[in-house]
């Protein structure tokens, strides 16, 4: 399996990607990949350090004739999003990613691939190991925990890096040169509630929503993908309004930066209304399927009998909870007035759990405008507080303000046109890149972001395009040759 991947071109890059993907590297569980990267640098005889928070920095001197060029920081993050299909048996803590070639794409079997940002990491590793690639002095910066808090970038102290140019290799369109990104904030609503004994005349049912594509909650938030938490709440709301459905448990979604693909609820209904309830649910299923048939052709919604739950949610709390979830913004909140086609502000209702007298709703709010980000965060806060929830803001990180006069931007746009015969798409993105955070301690560093085509990031449909990686690798090598002099 990894042998097949290692035979792809450019071999030096794909071989490093295969080696990296053999190492479990979930966000906040990066101990093994940190050790892997430190061993890699030391084996090459290069200066290798781990900073106070776990970022790894490897320094390589310039090749002959490039000593007078500006030192370049090549940066990618070590962690990856761990998501799998419900029917996939896989242990992210112990297993390496199982990859395969599908035409012009590399995929993983039932899990995320880790191309975000593993291809960037592998690119830097290949250059560090090379003996025939021309380049200026390089500081390789491998950050941790980008996907669930950006604590690596936040914890990188000023003064450690000496480079004047930063190449961030975390963009997912090969014709795009990134010059800005959104900031983000985690919004978490919680509350306790009293459970009631389930009346004897009620029976149990399980409702499942699955088969959604999921995806990146920033880059794909505008695509009209289904959100399992919102779909489930729609079903629960309808079931209560028409049949007095009562909620016992909900388990929906996963990571904040992934659009939720699946949700499961255990509910109780009056036994005398069972037939009408099932017919109504089936009608709702068909309505939702028709609404989402273009973007979500694999959507599957099912309802099936189960053991009657012993406890159900307090009626007043349930009414407030389902109404708050209905009212809460999910998806695009505002488009940019300055950059055509760019999502300015959005929210992802990522994780909803109800069990044992506790409610938790986890959101990720993004915006390229700080005031708009906080406006939406406060909108969510007000919505959830109206139903008795406590709301916490955490993980706040800044956006990256575009600099259209950037010298390295001029280098990249010129090279891209020369190599590809067309103009690059210079853009800000709605994802969270680490450049804005790194720029706080390195305000004079000239930063740019680019990368190969990666589709379906943060979902088990994640895939990397082989021909695009070849195009991107050629671009990287030319950029290193054309780094300006000091």
Automatic annotation (TrEMBL):
Domain Peptidase M20 dimerisation as annotated: residue spans: 208-276
What keyword terms does UniProt attach to this protein? Hydrolase
InterPro entries according to UniProt: Peptidase_M20, Peptidase_M20_dimer, Peptidase_M20C
By its UniProt entry, which CDD domains does this protein fall under? M20_pepD
Matching entries from PANTHER family are given as: CYTOSOL NON-SPECIFIC DIPEPTIDASE
By what name is this protein known?
A: Aminoacyl-histidine dipeptidase
